[in-house]
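Annex B. Sample input.
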Amino acid sequence: MFGFAGHAVYPEGEIALPLTLGIGDLRKTVMTTFTVVHAPSSYNVILGRPTMNEMKAVASTYHQKIKFPVRGQVGEVKGDQPSSRRCYGETVRVDQKKARREGKEKEHQEETHEREVHFVVEEEQEVVEIEPGKNVQVARDICTTTRVNLLQCLKTNVDVFAWSQKELFGISPRVAEHKLNILPGSRPVKQKKRHFGPEKDKVIEKQVEELLKAGHIREVHFPS
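Annex B, continued. Sample output.
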């Protein structure tokens, strides 16, 4: 289940207690089952819809009141503005502390993940020819059994894979079609040109040339 702040909470049990609301003679008592959770909150008890329905209560956040019928009359519970402000402020502070703590934990996990990631460089791979003109790169450090099974699978199903950009025919618009729903009259947004570095620019340029030759993309001129 999820708390009001959107975080997951795990019930530790339930307890049934008599709940009394009202002032003086205009009081009403009902047995209420509370779900006990361990979660940071400024509120000790939160009344749910089942209890409100059983009491036939009507709540108004604007007036900070709850009214309910009592023996043909109307009982009420009044809220307290200073207490409400303190509870709200404390809830915001708890959420902010939790967000900062989770942000630090996420940064730590990302740094740890970056240190643990292993990149296979080109020197650790070798090019294997499946058929003339159809090559694949295979890691050198894989076990012999996996290597044999992998190459055998590729040779057996060589006609299944696309070995060049020209063999990628795409999907017919009758099957699936992607559209951008742009509001008529919207002005184009101009963004700064992004540079990825010399090495990445070479790879991007090569991929773009292959896609152009295969006819998958075309050049479009926009006003500067």
